[in-house]
Design brief:
The complex is a heterodimer of chains A (245) and B (321). Chain A has 245 residues and is an alpha/beta fold. Chain A has two domains: 145 residues, Rossmann fold; 65 residues, no CATH class. In chain A, the strands form two sheets. A six-stranded mixed beta sheet of chain A has the order 6-7-8-3-9-10, with helices on both faces. In chain A, helix 6 links the parallel strand 7 and strand 8. In chain A, helix 3 crosses helix 4 and helix 3 runs parallel beside helix 5. Chain A starts with a strand and ends with a helix. The model of chain B has no long low-confidence stretch (mean pLDDT 89). Chain B is globular and about 55 Å long. By secondary structure, chain B is mainly alpha-helical. A two-stranded antiparallel sheet of chain B has the order 1-2. Chain B is 76% helix and 1% strand. Chain B has a single domain, classed as ABC transporter involved in vitamin B12 uptake, BtuC. The longest helix of chain B is centred in the last third of the chain and has 27 residues. The chains are: A alpha/beta (245), B mainly alpha (321). Chains A and B meet through helix 2, helix 3 and helix 5 of A and helix 7 and helix 8 of B.
Chain lengths: 245, 321
């Protein structure tokens, strides 16, 4: 059964159609990559699924339940956690307290939240920095913390919005390992990236958006040879010249 | 762990000193000063719940203070209800007011929220100035009843007031301490830190903002009822002024917002200044304390935005390195 099922999802901002009848299905224990050039509507789709924007049309089902238009906090309670492209950490709180906030999603008891928090910090390799103020972390660690906070809410679907943008090669490699580890622990991952190199090696399936429409959906190795996708990323001219050869 | 143990020892010493204080200093003034410090520390702590922890700067807290003072007084005068019961009814009423005020105001962010709360405070004061049934501008003089704990009136000594104020102070610290360490406290701080981030972690932002305001309003209201019983006279100018709303905010800000001990430190610094300048300059010096407050706030906000608490943390860090 599909864990997440998006049907004909449309989001309009005035005259601009950011998402145009998008169908998307994420199965349990998969890593699905959502890619597309800048402005393709990836983040908008994310926000519609996670309850940050009410969709203008279409439905979102999670574990068979209709969650279209539910507020973000309720979506999180049902088991969808998301991270933000521009990290939204609580900079005046310590790393540990940041993750505690996430952990309280599943419990009212500080002792239980703390136990979960220590587990997550360990899992994400943030334990040595747990007493630091979040605002003082490096970009890579901030992204890691953003990830840890989401993980602490104990989601069954984790949605990562460009979790690796702005990281160097080593840091990206570490982040990819972390995503793989999360999947191994049984959590499904939906990954937004516009860097193809990141998505290809870890995704089971890749969905490509362009100008708000879904233009391709396939295994990663097939998607990179898709004419539409190449056109979207590199433009008509390149596409034409490649044909001429 | 050693540091923690030390902290409890200091707390115990402080607590015992405050408990025997009225036996050491038997004159009315030192006791009055301490009662005022306890009262304002409690008010600062109450404000801190919404303003400090949840980061919603309310400048209309006089509304809840006045609501508490008027509710217990009117219940006592018109129905003969014990001020203790009146205190609880006032607290409940203030929670209701918090909901009515919070519902529209929480849709506003940052400075706009603060401005809206100022407006509501002013409306409340004008309303009370013109409400004849509640004494209007003349105010209400509480009936002089026989001295007793149930009547919450003591005429020959201030010592019982001292212990009651101390009790309210301990209660608000205890509740703040609980907030600081439990789910609501984490959620309040998250809301202050980043609204969208908080929402994405499953926090019902509107609900938790209301919880913070309700707790804050309840304790502010209790302080109001106590004030009425202590002074035995209330009018809109003494329990609904904008200045009161500003002072409770200043106390928390000076000491350190979003911490358990910040408002306590703030009250121990500001209230003696205000009481002594009042004595030194009398009516003609009205506002002198505010000039000093203003200066202190400027210094604090320039050099140490986290308040006196932040300063002490900084010093401790320097010592250890």
């Amino acid at each position: 059964m599909a864990l997440l099922e998006v049907q004909k999802l449309t989001k309009r901002f005035g005259g601009l159609v950011a998402n145009d009848h998008i169908d998307l299905q994420v199965n349990e224990a998969e890593i699905v990559g959502l890619i597309g050039p800048n402005g393709a509507g990836k983040t908008t789709l994310f926000n519609c699924i996670a309850g940050f924007y009410p969709p203008s049309g279409g439905t979102v089902r999670f574990k068979g339940e209709d969650i279209t238009g539910l507020p973000a906090n309720e979506v999180c309670l049902l088991g969808i956690a998301r991270t933000f492209q521009l990290v939204r950490i609580f900079k005046d709180m310590t790393v540990m307290d940041n993750v505690m906030v996430g952990a309280f999603n599943r419990t009212n008891l500080a002792a239980r939240a703390k136990k979960k928090t220590l587990e997550v910090l360990d899992f994400c390799g943030l334990s040595p920095k747990k007493s630091m103020l979040a605002g003082g972390l490096t970009i890579a660690d901030k992204k890691r913390l953003e990830f840890a906070k989401a993980l602490a809410t104990e989601p069954s679907l984790l949605m990562l919005d460009e979790a690796m943008a702005g990281l160097n090669q080593t840091e990206t490699g570490e982040a990819i390992e972390l995503v793989k580890k999360v999947r191994q622990s049984g959590i499904t991952v939906l990954l937004v990236e516009h860097v193809m190199e990141v998505v290809m090696p870890i995704s089971n399936r890749v969905v490509v958006l362009d100008y708000g429409k879904k233009i391709a959906e396939d295994a990663p190795e097939k998607v990179i040879h898709n004419e539409e996708v190449i056109k979207a990323y590199l433009g008509d001219k390149y596409h034409a010249s490649r044909r001429a050869h | 762990m050693g540091g923690n143990k030390n902290k409890w020892i200091w707390l115990a010493i402080g607590g015992i000193l405050l408990l025997i204080f009225p036996f050491i200093l038997t004159l009315p003034f030192p006791r009055h000063l301490m009662i005022m410090i306890f009262l304002y520390a409690s008010l600062g702590l109450a404000w801190n719940m919404i303003g400090g922890y949840a980061g919603q700067i309310s400048l209309g807290h006089a509304v809840y203070f006045g609501a508490g003072a008027y509710t217990s007084t009117i219940l006592l005068m018109k129905l003969g209800v014990s001020p203790w019961a009146g205190m609880l009814v006032g607290g409940a009423l203030s929670v209701g007011l918090a909901f009515i005020i919070g519902y529209p105001c929480f849709k506003l962010a940052g400075h706009y929220f603060a401005i809206a709360t100022i407006a509501i405070g002013e409306i409340a004061q004008q309303w009370m100035l013109n409400w004849d049934w509640a004494g209007a501008a003349v105010g209400l003089t509480l009936p002089i009843l026989p001295e007793s704990l149930i009547n919450l009136e003591f005429h020959t000594t201030k010592a019982p007031y001292y212990y009651i104020a101390f009790g309210i102070f301990v209660l608000t610290i205890w509740v703040t301490y609980w907030i600081d360490r439990s789910k609501p406290g984490y959620y309040f701080k998250a809301i202050k830190g980043d609204l969208e981030g908080a929402r994405s972690l499953g926090i019902d932002v509107a609900r938790y903002k209301f919880y913070a305001l309700a707790l804050s309003a309840f304790f502010t209201s209790i302080c109001g009822s106590f004030y009425a019983q202590y002074i035995l006279f209330i009018d809109p100018d003494s329990v609904f002024p904008l200045m009161l709303s500003i002072i409770v905010c200043l106390i928390a800000t000076l000491g350190g917002v979003g911490t358990v001990w910040g408002p306590v430190i703030g009250a121990f610094i500001l209230i003696p200044i205000s009481e002594f300048t009042r004595i030194q300059f009398g009516g003609g010096g009205k506002g002198t304390d505010l000039i000093i407050y203003g200066f202190l706030i400027m210094v604090i906000s320039i050099y140490q935005p986290f308040g006196v608490i932040g300063l002490s943390k900084l010093l401790r860090k320097k010592e250890s390195t």
